[in-house]
Input
Amino acid sequence: MGAIMDTDLIWQHIDEQRLELAALIETLTPAQLATPSLCDAWTVRDVAVHLTHSHTSPSRAMLAACRYGFRFDTMIRELALRDHTSADEAAATLRAMVGSRRHPIGTTPMAPLLDSLLHGQDITVPLAIDRTMPHDAATACAAYLWSTGFPFHARRRNAGRRFVATDSGFAVGEGEVVEAPIRDIVMLFGGRSSAAGVLAPSL
Output
């Protein structure tokens, strides 16, 4: 499994991803923004708006959790759908978030790093835009996904398989060996099996 990443480096990657995503979002046409993303029920615009929600205050997050009966997937989905922020406004907010170390209540800095990598793919894959993942950040995210349960349960869903990254030192699991780029492994572990390159859907 990949090495644990230094916290300062995690935030450096988050800042870089936010700046890159802001620049990308500003180039998208209305038709591209209305394209269905890899996230169920969300368009590309909705994903862009969701990326700004990691700065939601703890009090607002708790109010939203109560409103949706602590059904967190529903809460996250509906907050993005009901947020009428424009794509340009979302891009500006992402830029304004650079340098901040705030992350969602109850999470670690790995959460916004994973969000930026996965949601970057949720935006670009449907638009046929090839977006790379920094290998060290992707390796850290793959290790994080494998070692945590909720919400993706990567270890349980991929029992009986050993994943070996072809472009980093990442390797986890036991059983049938699956070799793939680290980006595809992160996508699979993060529930994007349909877009995870040559990897078979998780079990």
Observations:
- Residues 133-202 form a domain with the Nonspecific Lipid-transfer Protein; Chain A fold (CATH 3.30.1050).
